[in-house]
Amino acid sequence: MKLVFKTPAKINLGLFILGKRPDGYHDLETLFQMVSLYDTVELESRDHGIELVCNHPEVPTGESNLMIRAARLLQEKFPGRDGMGCRMTLTKTIPMGAGLGGGSGNAAGVLMGLNRLWDLQLKPAELSEMAARLGSDIPFFLCAPAALGEGRGERLTPLQPTKKFYVILVFPRVSLATAEVYKALNFDLTLSSKNINILREFFSQSNISSLGAHLHNDLEPVVIDRLPVARSIKDKLRSLHAAGTLVSGSGSTVFGIFEDARVAEQAFVRLREEAWDTFLTESVSSFSEFLPENLLNYS
Ligand code: C5P
């Protein structure tokens, strides 16, 4: 049996760091939103053995890969069970080390896909718990197209989707390592006293222009400091009438949001003249926009 499905990218419309935890992670509040840029995952059952092939030469296909680690976690939960092998094929479109959660979405896809392929009947809460063990952003991809994340980002409250808005993603062709960006965070200088509530309010009102004006990421100064081109991209997006611009997650992608499709298209045409990788996407409102029927109720 074979399953083929897409896994989306995410942006963080807000990311507020509350403090450093004893385990080395940071407590945060974030507003996650899925956007319509996708990788493709193909899962084909095998009697035994886990194999990953990928079209992108920089994706590690060994045991360190999050998709393999997700499959191993599931195998460990059912020791001695037959038929838990798989050949996984990943077709990569989402830039890596980009703050877009591409690898996290792939891993979440493997959890929900293998749950179906191997007929494990794990419940969403069990899959989420396993997802959180693999990485802070992974549970979001099992949760909802938009959600508030707390704790490490793994404690989630699904949000009603806003009306569609348009998102231009600009990847400056330089990757950043999440751990290093967090490490460089200077608490005294960078942390704002603002919080996620105002953003959440504008989100629930589908007020895209106010949402744009209040986008905020405590990690943005660190990213701009390391990658001044992020500032230039923000300036460019603003000059092309974005309602707001922000570094996504720990970077390096900068995104701009637009209420109007025509304005977004015009900005996209202009940005494509630059030496960056630029994608015109929409906010995702439902899993049904990218998941096939046989995975929609993945539990
Ligand atoms: O959870 P994940 O493996 O994706 O996190 C990668 C790194 O990002 C962590 O090792 C940590 O340095 C940093 N991080 C953090 N606080 C979070 C999430 C990630 O410090 N809430």
Name the features.
about 300 residues; alpha+beta; Ribosomal Protein S5, domain 2; Alpha-Beta Plaits; 2 domains; seven-stranded mixed beta sheet; four-stranded antiparallel beta sheet; 12 helices; 11 strands; about 30% strand; binds cytidine-5'-monophosphate
Task: Describe what is shown at a glance.
It is built from twelve helices and eleven strands. With 299 residues, the chain is an alpha+beta fold.
User: Largest sheet, if any?
Assistant: 7 strands, mixed
> Average pLDDT across residues?
96
SSE ordering: EEEHEHHHEEEHHHHEHHEEHEH
Proper CATH architecture of the largest domain:
2-Layer Sandwich
CATH fold naming of the largest domain: Ribosomal Protein S5, domain 2
- SS content category: alpha+beta
Bound chemical compounds: cytidine-5'-monophosphate
Report how far the terminal alpha carbons are from each other. Answer: 18 Å
User: Which residue ranges are poorly predicted, with pLDDT under 50 across at least 5 consecutive positions?
Assistant: none
What is the helical fraction, as a range of percent? Answer: 25-40%
Secondary structure tally, helices: 12
* Number of structural units classed as domains: 2
**Number of distinct beta strands:** 11
- C-alpha-based Rg, rounded: 19 Å
Shape: globular
Estimated share of beta-strand residues: 25-35%
By CATH reckoning, the class of the largest domain would read Alpha Beta
